[in-house]
Structure formats: structure tokens, C-alpha cells
Amino acid sequence: xxxxxxxxxxxxxxxxxxxxxxxxxxxxxxxxxxxxxxxxxxxxxxxxxxxxxxxxxxxxxxxxxxxxxxxxxxxxxxxxxxxxxxxxxxxxxxxxxxxxxxxxxxxxxxxxxxxxxxxxxxxxxxxxxxxxxxxxxxxxxxxxxxxxxx
Length: 150
Ligand code: SF4
Prior knowledge:
two-stranded antiparallel sheet; globular; about 20% strand; about 30% helix; alpha/beta; binds iron/sulfur cluster; Transcription Regulator spoIIAA; 5-stranded mixed β-sheet
């Protein structure tokens, strides 16, 4: 895909070229697990189902997740596997799916949420962003958000 997901608007084909964020064309995941140390309203009593994506389009030098956000710790996985990850977290009784640094992977996330929803995902989605995405990228999430709250 030609990527213009964030305000860098690299317009590069990520299949063949890296943009500013250097994120791959497929989903790269650093960690998924139950997280109790988000804001209390998100972690609640059972924890948040946090999904840390590798890489970040903002690249702050002081990032507390530097190994993940800039050294790309993680593993490339398929959209189908990402959908399974969402469902596995839901089975752990978390309050939500918490997408950390999701911006470079929004199209993959939407596809994975579609699959997961068809297979029973119903808990809320937290879009935990650096806010450096385009309005169009945010709007692309509208459909899936409406579906999940329906
Ligand atoms: S997500 Fe990455 S490749 Fe896409 S526009 Fe932003 S910096 Fe460029």
C-alpha cells in the first residue's frame, strides 16, 4: 500500500520502500498481554488487553518503550494471527483491547478487528495513539468502532 497514514505522508509503497517510521508492510507485534498499569479507568480490576505494536511514526528520543518503538523489537505476524491475539486477550477477561502505537498498522488492525468481531470479539477497543495520524486515518476507524458498539 502507498502509505499516507500519518502526517508525514510519505506516500511510499511499503511493500518495497520504508517510510519515515520504517515500519514493515505486515503487522509487527512486540507484546500482547494483560496490563494493570494503564490509567485506572482502562485497567479496571481485570486489566487491559494491551497490544504493543513494533515501531512508531513519532520516534521521540525519550520514549519509555524505545526498544519497541525505535529498535523494532517484535515479530511479524499475519492479520489472522492478530485477530486471534485479540480474541485470546478477551478470553483472559480483560476490559478492553488496548492498541498501543497503532498508527502505521491501521489497515491491518481494521481487517483483524473485522475477523475477530465475526468470531465473537465484543469488548471495547482503546486506540492508544500519539495522535500524529491524518484525519482520514481516524475516519477509517469509524466503521469498525460503530460495529463494535452496535
Ligand atoms: S505511517 Fe510511516 S510510512 Fe506511513 S506516512 Fe507515517 S511515517 Fe510514513
